[in-house]
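Fill in residues.
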């Protein structure tokens, strides 16, 4: 993907994030994620019904990469079966870690395929994805 297109997608999701804003609903699983090396702090809410991620909400104070990554993540994961979400998540983590991954399933999240070139920004991009991983692990433990 062209670098200008990547920047454009990231900027659009930062300026107009999708699924931003928390709601009062006890059926959502919740977690708080923060990046100890900067100001990034996100609250995530995930609704899973019948093995499908029905909704993901987020809010918090964070940098452009963190907000855009959370927005893109919500678009990528909502409506998918939990098993698909786990596969996409693992492939995203592999991509950021410069391991083998399937770029076909990452949808717009592929815009972060070069974030490893700036290691100090990896946590910004990963924060919301780690939050989903944490919530899915809690769901499995139930």
């Amino acid at each position: 993907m062209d670098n200008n297109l990547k920047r454009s997608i990231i900027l659009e999701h930062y300026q107009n994030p999708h699924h931003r804003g928390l709601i009062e609903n006890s059926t959502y699983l919740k977690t708080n994620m923060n990046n100890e090396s900067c100001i990034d702090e996100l609250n995530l809410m995930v609704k899973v019904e019948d093995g499908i991620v029905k909704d993901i909400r987020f809010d918090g104070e964070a940098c452009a990469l963190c907000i855009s990554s959370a927005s893109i993540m919500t678009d990528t994961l909502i409506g998918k079966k939990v098993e698909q979400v786990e596969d996409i998540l693992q492939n995203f983590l592999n991509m950021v870690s410069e391991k083998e991954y399937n770029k076909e399933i990452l949808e717009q999240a592929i815009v972060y395929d070069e974030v490893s070139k700036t290691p100090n920004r990896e946590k910004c991009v990963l924060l919301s994805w780690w939050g989903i991983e944490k919530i899915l692990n809690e769901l499995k433990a139930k």
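Helices lie at 3-15, 64-77, 82-96, 122-141.
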